[in-house]
């Protein structure tokens, strides 16, 4: 039994609907999946409903962009309450910032004689949490670029003409936000961040786990973070970071996390709730 705990849907920058994602997971024989859309939990209810007839266990989650000591990192919040008022209020703010960022990127493209309209981006995104991939798709659809790679290389990568910095919540605030929504805070793909030095401080702030297994982690990188997770008594997670068909072949199922780690995650959630109950 295996799980894929890092998946995106059309509710952020993925191309799969929740139903398509659940169907693909079933075809691959996965036992459990988590949807980790950026700055939103909107797709969780639909994915949960789609997973039930497929016999799939579903874990509600999200992915937040955070910052600590000038280091950007992504935090995955697992088992969050998708109706938590404070979480939803904060996410509404994050989504507004994302929408404003789209307007700024389009304005910069216009300054470089690319007559793309923001409405075209929002029509393609069709969600409250748009991002750079949606601008890239709009550039391709509008005939301004041949493919997504060209769009990023010419315009959207850091230091390119239309690049606009992302809003980043403080990592400490992000961990606290996930916790108050009943979730576990896990650092996504730490091998891509190259910020091992900040992990002890994040552990002190309540970090619950490391995503040790990821599509872009080599076996030795995964082993390194498994050792680190054990050293700090952190949960071990893993996922493909699948965005559907936006980056060519879908990645779902290419990272198979043994189900025992899902059970340990659930145990960690239960322990946290027990401690909170005792402290009330």
Task: Indicate the topology.
Blueprint: E1 2-7, H1 18-27, E2 32-35, H2 44-54, E3 57-68, E4 71-78, H3 85-111, H4 118-125, H5 132-141, H6 148-156, E5 169-170, H7 171-180, E6 184-187, H8 190-193, H9 199-204, E7 209-214, H10 219-231, E8 235-239, E9 257-258, H11 259-279
Parallel strand pairs: 1-2, 2-3, 3-5, 6-7, 7-8
Antiparallel strand pairs: 1-9, 3-4, 4-6
Helix pairs in contact: 1-2, 4-5, 5-6
What does this structure look like?
46% of the residues lie in helices and 18% in strands. It has 280 residues and is of the alpha/beta class. The chain has 2 domains: 2-83 and 170-279, Alpha-Beta Barrel (TIM Barrel), CATH 3.20.20.140; 91-156. Strands 1, 2, 3, 4, 5, 6, 7, 8 and 9 form a 9-stranded mixed β-sheet that branches. The protein is globular. The two termini are 37 Å apart. The mean pLDDT is 95.
Attribute tags:
nine-stranded mixed beta sheet, TIM Barrel, 2 domains, 280 residues, alpha/beta, 46% helix
Concise synopsis of the structure shown:
With 280 residues, this protein is of the alpha/beta class.
- Strand fraction equals 15-25%
Largest sheet entry: 9 strands, mixed
CATH class group of the largest domain: Alpha Beta
Q: Note the run of SSEs as H and E.
A: EHEHEEHHHHEHEHHEHEEH
Low-confidence stretches: none
Helix fraction, binned, reads: 40-55%
CATH topology of the largest domain: TIM Barrel
When the domains are counted, the total is: 2
Shape type: globular
What is the radius of gyration computed over CA atoms, rounded to a whole number of angstroms? 19 Å
* CATH homologous superfamily caption of the largest domain: Metal-dependent hydrolases
Number of helices: 11
Secondary structure category: alpha/beta
Give a count of the beta strands, DSSP E runs of length 2 or more.
Answer: 9
What gap, in angstroms, lies between the N and C termini? 37 Å
Q: What is the CATH-assigned architecture of the largest domain? A: Alpha-Beta Barrel
- pLDDT average, as an integer? 95
